[in-house]
Design goal:
Layout (H helix, E strand, L loop, with lengths): L23 H16 L35 H11 L11 E6 L2 E6 L13 H20 L2 E10 L4 E9 L6 H7 L16 H8 L7 E5 L2 H20 L1 H8 L2 E2 L2 H7 L3 E2 L8 H4 L1 H4 L7 H17 L3 E7 L4 H20 L3 E4 L2 H4 L4 H7 L6 E9 L16 E2 L4
Parallel strand pairs: 1-11, 6-7
Antiparallel strand pairs: 1-2, 2-4, 3-4, 5-8, 8-10, 9-10
Helix pairs in contact: 2-3, 3-4, 3-12, 4-12, 6-11
Length: about 400
């Protein structure tokens, strides 16, 4: 039975934090502390990470493949379900999850070491990522002939966001979405501007349930105005040195660097061009004089991305509660899995949500008078892009008794 409760203490929505500029010494302390945290596996309370498979200081990576047929019950099944979960998207590919598992239960926990306190101060982005991981797990369970059940937020003191149990369903469902889990990619390139056909939009909208709502915008003028709003929000976010110091921790020099770390976003995936791509180390360094150029480049890139989209959609939660945000993350994952299955590219654009003062204007762009915006996503058509790496199951789970 699904049981919505209050969010865990360390994940409850907080008051909006006032941005401040980091001094050079504070920035170096932040970088040093975060680098140390990234060098170690996540450590939720009472959990110990199994680092099996890590060699030569590189993270063991999760394969972007899943077995079509159900794995054997027990350890292999649990590993398979978690393997599907970790292919979910997250802001800056920070992967803020950890799993504890037994033979017939998997517990999903938030990993506080992978939070983004400056760019995601109220944790809604973390909840969306955790909800997406949860939905991948549930889709895989159904595709393998299981009937999963979810207990939401079962242990607030330890940051547990969901317990999943299962029984034999006797039938295999969600196989179309299951096939899309390994094909889904965040695509930050320009799209071709073609609008999704009405029946395609109807199929996408049908994926959103459990109280969340999806509002569409696909007219030229509306996308132009939305692009300017996203531009302004991205510029404000990048210009905030404390936010950019946080983002810099997850920016990788190239795909090899991302694979070595097992997380983060390589510069080339940002789809920049010219100096912004060549000098990213300086353009996005919060201690550098060149940051002002990076802010302008990223903001212009975001505006262009919106204006080349075929449509944009805003996912809105019914309340400012952790359980609603978690379920919204589930809806988001079903939405983008269906988009992948239908041949659409997608990209979340969350600066207007992460910078709170832009949220009212964002809601107005979609004709809404209120609500809790969770994810702004653009859709369109483009060639397939490469995936970003994920840490292996062994690095993000404790399989005691499984």
């Amino acid at each position: 039975m699904e049981r919505p409760l209050r969010p865990p203490r360390d994940l409850r929505p907080s008051e909006t934090r006032r941005s401040r500029t980091l001094g050079r010494r504070e920035f170096l302390v932040l970088v040093g502390g975060a680098a140390a945290g990234l060098a170690l596996p996540p450590l939720p309370a009472g959990a110990r990470t199994r680092a099996t498979g890590a060699r030569n200081g590189a993270a063991a990576l999760q394969s972007w493949r899943l077995p079509t047929d159900p794995p054997p019950a027990g350890l292999e099944l649990v590993r398979g379900l978690i393997g599907a979960a970790v292919l979910a998207p997250s802001d800056w590919n920070s992967q803020p999850w950890y799993f504890e598992a037994g033979p017939e239960r998997i517990r999903l926990l938030a990993d506080p070491q992978r939070a983004l306190p400056h760019s995601d101060p109220d944790r809604r982005g973390a909840f969306v990522a955790l909800g997406a991981a949860l939905e991948n797990l549930l889709v895989a369970a159904r595709a393998w002939g299981l009937q999963p059940a979810v207990d939401y937020l079962p242990d607030a003191a330890r940051g547990a966001v969901a317990d999943v149990t299962w029984s034999d369903a006797g039938a295999r469902r969600d196989r179309d979405l299951f096939g899309a889990i390994t094909e889904r990619r965040t695509n930050r390139r320009n799209y071709d501007g073609r609008r999704p056909l009405p029946h395609v939009r109807a199929q996408l909208t049908a994926q959103v349930a459990d109280g969340s709502s999806l509002v569409w915008l696909d007219d030229h003028d509306g996308l132009r105005d939305l692009g300017q709003l996203v531009h302004d929000a991205v510029h404000a976010q990048v210009s905030d040195r404390s936010v950019q110091a946080e983002h810099q921790l997850w920016l990788r020099h190239d795909r090899r660097d991302a694979a070595r770390r097992g997380d983060g976003v390589p510069v080339e995936a940002l789809a920049m061009s010219g100096p912004a791509n060549w000098f990213a180390g300086s353009y996005y360094d919060p201690t550098s004089w060149f940051l002002r150029f990076g802010a302008g480049s990223l903001a212009k890139r975001a505006r262009e991305a919106v204006r080349t989209a075929g449509a944009a959609a805003l996912l809105v939660a019914p309340s400012r509660e952790g359980a609603a945000w978690l379920q919204g993350g589930q809806a988001y994952e079903r939405l983008v899995l269906k988009a992948t299955q239908l041949g659409l590219a997608h990209q979340p654009l969350n600066a207007p949500i992460g910078v709170e003062r832009f949220r009212p204007a964002l809601l107005r762009r979609f004709g809404l008078a209120g609500g809790e915006p969770l994810v702004l996503v653009r859709f369109g058509r483009d060639q397939r892009v490469a995936h970003t790496p994920r840490r292996a199951v062994a690095l993000v789970s404790n399989l005691r008794g499984a």
